[in-house]
Amino acid sequence: MFILKSVASWVxxxxxxxxxxxxxxxxxxxxxxELEVDLLPTSKVRVKDLFVLFDYDNRIVKLIVRSIKYxxxxxxRKRIAEYLYDEIMEMSSDITLFDGIPPLLVPMPMSxxxxxxxxxxxxEELLKEVEKMASGNLEISYNTLRKIRETKRQTELGRxxxxxxxxxxxxxxxxxxxxxxxxxIVLDDVYTTLAxxxxxxxxxxxxxxxxxxxxxxxx
Length: 219
Fold this sequence. Notes:
The protein is an alpha/beta fold. The chain is built from 8 helices and 7 strands.
């Protein structure tokens, strides 16, 4: 077992090294991360059940999000996951106190075709980093909320078109009743029109979820 874990750890480090070599981090971002990510401007969003870490209008924040979203940069992903972890643990503590049961965390899903084409789902990758830090103290599901049909790229559409584009594209698969009368936290990268989150919320509510919270890196 120890040998298998050692091999898995070595493979993971090798993959990350190759990945960062092929897609090097922006030097300005790296310098900032080495100093203080706390220097990044926090989001001004103050909406019930929506939590956003940073202000997307900031150039550095944009570069960080794009590096995670399109390049799956391991270094930046781990650094941002640390901030997500702190936020999630605080939220989980409050929710568990009031609900009597901890929340379930799910990533914003991609369709099979989207994920296959891109090679990864950045929200899943971030939650995997958070899961490592939590050491079993958080419950995360990568398959409960799924995208069941293809949609056009949201960045190419206006607000109303985005809502129509994602309507009915998600479904909950919950054979063990994990989400019944429970709070679910949905992790996504950027909050823009909330079209995808609204669809995720619809699917989760229809499956019996008690409360849905959106957690975003930036807006």
